[in-house]
Amino acid sequence: MTDLPERLATAEWLEADGLGGFASGTVAGVRTRRYHALLLAAMTPPTGRVVLVNGFDAWVEPTGEEGTGNGERKYLTTQRYAPDYTGGEGFKRIGGFSPDPWPTWTFRLDDGSEIEQEIFVPRGVPAALVRWRLKKRRVGLRLVVRPFLSGRDSHAIHHENGDFRFDAEVEPGRIRWRPYPGLPAILSRTNGSYHHEPEWYRNFLLDEEKARGFDATEDCGSPGTLSFDLSGGDAVWIVAAEGIPGVTGLGEGDAETAFKRLRAAEQKRRKVFASRLHRAADAYLVRRGQGSTIVAGYPWFTDWGRDTFISLRGLCLATGRLDDARSILLEWAGLVSRGMLPNRFVDQGDAPEFNSVDASLWYVVAAYDYLQAMARAGKRVPTGDRQALETAILAILTGYAEGTRFGIRLDSDGLLRSGEPGVQLTWMDAKVGDWVVTARTGKAVEIQALWLNAVKIGSEISGVWASRYTKGCAAFTARFWNEGGWLCDVVDVDHQPGTCDPAFRPNQIFAVGGLPFPILQGEKAHRVVDLVEQRLLTPLGLRSLAPGEPGYIPRYQGGPVERDGAY
Question: What is the dihedral of CA 481, 487, 493, 496, to 10 degrees?
Answer without folding.
Answer: 10
